[in-house]
Specification:
single chain, binds zinc ion, alpha/beta, 322 residues, Purple Acid Phosphatase, chain A, domain 2, 7 helices, eight-stranded mixed sheet, globular
Length: 322
């Protein structure tokens, strides 16, 4: 009986070490944490064949890559009624039984429902980490990933404290369009968001952070040494909000966006990795790259590896910092 209890306890410990719960994300015992980024689903209710294609792709990639967290970085819905489509997406994400996060894109408010109305369906998800802000839409938020004590590792593992975060994830709403009427521009981060990032990340700037949002900021057009596809202009806001500088100065090592369906590169600007995801969606919008996703593998030592996944496998591996 005693042996049986010990085995059960060991199994429970192992399960806890391997499977992050919704309220506390932890690195695996091998020191990795895997994030699967889908982006720009552009689902249309009148094209169930395309919805099935997108969901099949999500099923396959989650099954094969076994991520610890799944995110979709915007442009989820592309037809009315948006609530039906959002509920389908929430159901699909919940079916994977692991934590997930949605950030909005510039098209999600255009299909008969406000972002606050859609958010009500999202936060009802069983495995979502999303919460509401005071206005009722999805809140910007940060979440730490904690180390797990090593069993037979080196000094770093033996001394790792399970209560100490070794990475922070930020999820931000990059909004849709400028509200100024003088000329068209995509929206930029609000000053309050920039200040919130400065304050929040600044409180732990010695610990690396990464961010997920939809619309790239202007620095994406300035990267060098990029790996992957850059086949359309960077469709960023005309105004620079200062978000990149805020992140650069508070410990961010990488950002991940969507929005430009024919870009999926990762490049360096001022020693920060700026990366696109890979278009994961339907044929309801332009796309000329093989559909897929981006995998980001964080290491509790403070670095990451990332690659593009599509029907022909894994491509464009980047390790950062090298
Ligand atoms: Zn899009």
């Amino acid at each position: 009986m005693k042996k049986f209890v010990i085995v059960i306890f060991a199994l429970l410990t192992l399960i806890e070490a391997c499977a992050p719960s919704a309220d506390k994300l932890t690195f695996r015992s091998d020191g990795t944490f895997r994030i699967l980024q889908f982006t720009d689903l552009h689902l249309q209710l009148q094209h169930p064949d395309q919805i099935a294609d997108v969901f099949d792709r999500m099923d396959s990639l989650v099954k094969w890559e076994d991520p610890d967290l799944i995110t979709i970085t915007g442009d989820l819905v592309y037809s009315t009624p948006a609530d039906t489509l959002i509920r389908l997406i929430v159901g699909k994400l919940d079916s994977f039984a692991r934590p997930w996060v949605i950030v909005y894109g510039n098209h999600d408010h255009e299909h008969g429902f406000t972002l606050a109305q859609l958010a009500q369906f999202i936060v009802q998800g069983q495995h979502t980490l999303n919460t509401l802000d005071p206005t009722g839409t999805l809140a910007d938020f940060e979440i730490p990933i904690y180390k797990t004590p090593g069993r037979a590792g080196g000094d770093e593992e033996r001394h790792a404290r399970p209560d100490r975060a070794s990475f922070y994830l930020f999820f931000l709403d990059s909004h849709a369009y400028s509200t100024y009427n003088d000329s068209f521009s995509y929206a930029w981060f609000e000053p309050e968001q920039v200040e919130w990032v400065r304050t929040t990340a600044g409180a732990h700037a010695e610990i690396p952070s990464i961010a997920f949002f939809h619309i790239p900021f202007p620095e994406y057009a300035e990267v060098t040494n990029y790996v992957g596809e850059w086949t359309e202009p960077v469709c960023c806001p005309k105004f620079n909000s200062g978000m990149f500088n805020a992140m650069k100065e508070t410990g961010f090592i990488a950002t991940f966006c969507g929005h430009d369906h024919d870009n999926s590169y990762a490049g360096i600007y001022d020693n920060v990795l700026l990366a696109y995801g890979r278009y994961s969606g339907s044929n309801g919008e332009y796309n000329h790259l093989p559909k897929g996703a981006r995998l980001i593998t964080l290491r509790s030592s403070g670095s990451l590896e990332t690659c593009i996944l599509d029907s022909s496998g894994a491509h464009n591996l980047v390790a950062f910092p090298e």
